[in-house]
Amino acid sequence: MKNKLKIYRAMFDITQEELAKKIGVSRQTINYIEKGKYSPSVSLALKLAYFFNCKVEDLFVLEKEDLNERT
């Protein structure tokens, strides 16, 4: 799954640490999400979208190969 979290952070001029504190996770969690090493829970994805005043789909994009994992 790809994400645009780093782009949104830049648009809002907020560090990983600041964002993490505002939504109640560790800075490492934000870092792992941005690097694509961690897929957030639905709850966390919704919190991030709410914080950035956007849709979850604006932040996270499911790729075709992610869909093929089920087959």
Task: Write a compact overview of the structure shown.
The chain has 71 residues and is mainly α. The chain has helices spanning 5-12, 16-23, 27-34, 42-51, 56-59, 64-68, and strands spanning 2-3, 60-61. Strands 1-2 form a two-stranded antiparallel sheet.
Structure overview:
The chain is mainly α. The protein has helices spanning 5-12, 16-23, 27-34, 42-51, 56-59, 64-68; strands at residues 2-3, 60-61. It has a two-stranded antiparallel ribbon. The protein is globular and about 35 Å long. The two termini are 17 Å apart.
Shape: globular
Report the C-alpha radius of gyration, rounded.
12 Å
Instruction: Compute the separation of the termini in Å.
Output: 17 Å
Give the strand content: 5-15%
Give the helix/strand layout.
Blueprint: E1 2-3, H1 5-12, H2 16-23, H3 27-34, H4 42-51, H5 56-59, E2 60-61, H6 64-68
Antiparallel strand pairs: 1-2
Helix pairs in contact: 2-3
